[in-house]
């Protein structure tokens, strides 16, 4: 995704923990992150190989948070799919929708913030907007 490297580097500079939670296999996820030269920017990887149920179940996000030793309500999820957005909301995490060309046309739940690209806003601005807005009411996905 455009802007992902900058966002991850900003998060690292800010002392924020970083993880990937994907419904794909570990081999595919780690290989893809390695090919793009960003695997080292993550502290934890949680994939379908590590849980019983994948997105829209919240297990992947809860596992990633546990591996980072960060409480779920303190986490912010950047997600492009509706099932991932539902999983983040069910996990009790803030969710920033970053729809891609395929998912932009599909129905999705109401989330805390939506951006057109990870390069659209600096991470500090995203965090400021999330801090100034109450979480999605009820945390139940649509």
Question: Could you describe the 3D structure shown?
Answer:
The chain has 142 residues and is α/β, with parallel strands linked by helices. The protein has a single domain, classed as HAD superfamily/HAD-like (Rossmann fold, 3-Layer(aba) Sandwich), CATH 3.40.50.1000. It is built from 5 helices and 5 strands. The protein has helices spanning 4-13, 26-35, 59-68, 82-90, 123-132; strands spanning 19-21, 44-46, 76-79, 94-97, 113-114. It has a 3-stranded parallel sheet with strand order 3-4-5, with helices on both faces. Strands 1-2 form a two-stranded parallel sheet. Helix 4 links the parallel strand 3 (76-79) and strand 4 (94-97). The protein is globular. The two termini are 25 Å apart. The mean pLDDT is 93.
């Amino acid at each position: 995704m455009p802007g992902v490297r900058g966002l991850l580097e900003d998060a690292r500079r800010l002392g924020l923990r970083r993880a990937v939670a994907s419904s794909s296999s570990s081999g595919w996820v780690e290989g893809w992150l390695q090919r793009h030269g960003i695997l080292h920017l993550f502290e934890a990887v949680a994939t379908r190989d590590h849980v019983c149920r994948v997105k829209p179940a919240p297990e992947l996000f809860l596992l990633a948070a546990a591996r980072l030793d960060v409480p779920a309500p303190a986490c912010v999820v950047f997600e492009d799919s509706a099932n991932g957005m539902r999983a983040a909301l069910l996990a009790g995490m803030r969710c920033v929708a970053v729809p891609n060309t395929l998912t932009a046309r599909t129905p999705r739940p109401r989330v805390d913030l939506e951006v057109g690209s990870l390069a659209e806003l600096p991470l500090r601005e995203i965090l400021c907007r999330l801090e100034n807005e109450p979480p999605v009411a009820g945390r139940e996905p649509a």
